[in-house]
Design brief:
Blueprint (H helix, E strand, L loop, with lengths): L10 H12 L2 H13 L3 H29 L3 H8 L6 H33 L8 H12 L3 H20 L1 H28 L4 H9 L8 H15 L5 H6 L8 H30 L9 H11 L4 H34 L4 H22 L7 E2 L2 E2 H28 L2 H8 L10 H23 L2 H8 L1
Antiparallel strand pairs: 1-2
Bound molecules: tryptophan.
């Protein structure tokens, strides 16, 4: 089966496609809003520790599994551990992909609304209060958000049926570098606003007493979400890697770029938010109410906002494609259907979930469970539970089921590239990452406090 499979065309293509998968709304929309609601720099500090000590080992393990088996997320476990329950890690991933796509495609749709507003000049001449109220009115409406979600899902669908090499790779090659440049320009603009330093302080000067169990769980969730790990997305992507792709280097480069983009997004948002008096705790609306104010203050403001939201939509698209591909590759390979049929099934599913998520934050209040609208519930369950649990089991799997010799051969491309920290990597996978993730869960459930109280 592996002989028939397509691979990404070039090394640059591999990096860009994987960065395209990792960098998306998670960095530019979710990261600032998590930082804002979890006490600022303290969250950033824990986040970076999670990337280094939990994210990187999980990421390398996923890339190893995908590149070795050339199978989808569930199929790869069936191949490495036939007849065992490990394939449930893959099923967890397929389900997580669906749930993430539910709210992610809605937020992607929001970016299209802002592209439209920039084009029609309706962002001009508004006050901070106008932007806040208009966003609330738009996102809680019925038809407009659903219309944009539909458009977005159709765009994803078209790229997915074109296949990985032509669609995903080509799209990422152009979009990622341009996004990067425009982010830097916007950081400079934001930093030169009045009062900018207060915002920078909020982002970069940690107050350690703000760290608590919920900050840690949120930071871990954000790290997993942002790196696209814990559910086999990178297993699926790495299954398209050619033989000579260097796993460790790819992991380090992707994690570094992803973190850099998130921090740049923070530098772009917080100085501006503080300068305009927008609460950093505004939640999911933070980016959408802060940025238009920044553009409004710039010469050719509508042009800037147009370019920015187009790029944000495209960054979202490359991530949505990766999530869609997880489910499509699974349906396609495990149920032996055509790519077209598998993709159609997934796209219709995403659209239906998108409608429910969108309605849950506005028109239909009844779509709430456990005190959260479905939109927030899907976000919570995936980022804070399914991805870290998936990551923990992936580490346990690689730590217990894969012989060290085989792992080393794969990580060094049969001894042709060096892996200086191989033993450290194995140590982290076997003992640190899985235990730490487990402890963070136990802590969140309040058991640590309980045990301390008993002692
Ligand atoms: N990481 C992407 C972002 O930051 C979202 C994403 C793509 C994702 N694929 C994923 C999240 C797989 C979790 C799992 O926007």
């Amino acid at each position: 089966m592996s002989a028939k499979r397509v691979t990404f065309g070039s090394k640059l293509g591999v990096i860009l496609a994987t960065v395209g998968c990792a960098v998306g709304l998670g960095n530019i929309w979710r990261f600032p809003y998590m930082v804002g609601s979890n006490g600022g720099a303290a969250f950033l500090l824990v986040y970076i520790l999670c990337i280094l000590f939990l994210g990187l080992p999980v990421m390398m393990s996923e890339l190893f599994i995908g590149k070795t088996t050339h199978r989808n997320t569930a199929g790869s476990f069936k191949e490495l551990a036939p007849g065992t329950k490990w394939k449930y890690i893959g099923y967890n991933g397929v389900l997580a992909a669906f749930l993430i796509l539910g709210f992610y495609s809605v937020v992607s749709g929001w970016t299209l609304e802002y592209v439209f507003q920039a084009l029609t000049g309706s962002l001009k001449g508004k006050s901070v209060a106008d932007f806040t109220n208009d966003f609330a009115a738009f996102s809680s409406g019925v038809w407009r958000p659903i219309f944009w979600t539909a458009l977005f899902v159709i765009a994803t669908h078209v790229i997915i049926i074109c296949g990985v090499d032509k669609g995903i790779e080509r799209a990422s090659k152009v979009m990622m570098p341009v996004l990067f440049i425009i982010l830097i320009a916007l950081c400079i603009r934001s930093l030169t606003l009045p009062n900018a330093l207060v915002g920078l302080d909020f982002l970069l000067r940690p107050q350690l007493d703000k760290i608590n169990s919920s900050v840690i769980l949120s930071a871990m969730g954000q790290a997993f979400f942002s790196l696209s790990i814990g559910m086999g997305c990178l297993i699926t992507y790495a299954s398209y890697f050619g033989k000579d792709v260097n796993i460790q280097q790819t992991a380090v480069e992707v994690a570094a770029l992803d973190t850099l983009v998130a921090i740049l997004a923070g530098v772009m948002i917080f100085p501006a938010a503080f300068s305009f008096g927008i609460e950093p705790t505004s939640g999911a609306s933070l980016v959408f109410i802060t940025l238009p104010n920044v553009f409004e203050q710039m010469p050719f403001g509508s042009l800037w906002s147009f370019v920015f939201f187009v790029l944000l939509a495209l960054a979202a698209l490359t991530s949505v494609i990766s999530l869609h591909e997880v489910v499509t590759a699974y349906v396609l390979e495990e149920y032996q259907t055509s790519r077209k049929k598998a993709a159609l099934f997934v796209s219709v599913g995403i659209f239906l979930l998108g409608i429910i998520c969108s309605l849950s934050v506005g028109a239909v209040k009844g779509l709430s469970f456990f005190g959260m609208p479905l939109f927030d519930l899907f976000d919570y369950v995936t980022a804070k539970i399914m991805l870290p649990l998936g990551g923990m089991f992936i580490c346990i799997f690689v730590g217990t089921h894969i012989q060290k010799r085989i792992l080393k051969e794969a990580m060094t491309n049969n001894g042709t590239v060096r892996f200086y920290f191989f033993n450290t990597y194995v140590f982290f996978v076997k003992y640190i990452a899985s235990v730490a993730i487990g402890l963070i869960f136990i802590n969140e459930l309040g058991w640590v406090d309980y045990i301390c109280a008993l002692l």
